[in-house]
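Can't paste images in this forum, so I'm doing it all in text. The chain is below; anyone willing to post the predicted structure tokens underneath?
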Amino acid sequence: MATVWSDEEQGFMQRALDVAERGRGRVSPNPLVGCVLVKDRNVIAEGWHDHLGGLHAEQMAIHDAEKNGFSSNGATAYVTLEPCNHFGRTPPCTEALMWAGIKEVIVAHLDPNPTVRGAGIQVLERAGIKVRQGLLEAEAGAQMRAFMHWCAHRRPMVTVKLAVDRNGSVDDRSGASQRFTSEACLDEVHQLRMECDAVLVGAETVVRDNPSLTVRRIDVERQPLRIILDPNDRVPSESTLLNDGEETLHITSTFRGLGPLLNQLGDRDIQRILVEGGPATIHAFLEDGLVDEFFLVQSGVEHAQPVSANIDEALLTAMGLQRFDDEQWGEEVVQHWSR
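Text version of the structure:
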């Protein structure tokens, strides 16, 4: 029989999901995790995984309770991901929960990582702690989608971002290359970059635009790995990507399909990659069936000498993607497609 969750319980787990978002762009290759401690139907503490090497969500919540003068003994913990039971950068969260006297743990999503996979729940139950699982499971899975994908496939989730004019053109050959979307849209692009572990472009993008591909409009503690696909060694040695001191992977060899490249990136704990290249690079990922998510940014401008992307709704549908929703990024309408 399926568990029936009360509105109050759903509210507590939603709060845990909300606080987990505070770690976005800061914790990879660890997942986003949030935790709230509830006692006498009141939230007494909250925590989230904030940065690599820092306290996990459960540990931060317990510390938060102590700092605010609350006893966690007898409390219920709402956690978005199954507590870990292994030593990594921090001690096991199961031990912290047992030490704190938590009486019940409600888990949104099981941890697919081979080092956990149910072991955390088993340890808690053997210690006499009641455990229930599945509350807002789909929402937690969506929040941790890149981590879940990496655990299942050992390769990064591929997100594509492409901006086109009103007629589907990616560039205007009548003049020098320049951005044609709004400032507010650019803010959203930098937010998206911040959420990814790597950004990839082809040689043509570097030759034409000389981009930096860094996150510049948001305070960040780390920059994504930049990747250039350049099988014909066309990228000029003076390009910004090769000289600004940030890490760049310049690939001049030819891959037979992009799957092996993604496998290598997965081995480096890259969980989400943003493809910002031109049409040729994007088509290569689409044709190999490797695109998991696509943001098609539609501008209202019209290019004088257009360069067609040849990417439209019919193609994305044929490639196995579904139109999830439409978003507004500044002045631009963005189609959000997902596998």
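Residues 7-20 form the longest helix (14 residues). The first strand starts at residue 34 and ends at 39.
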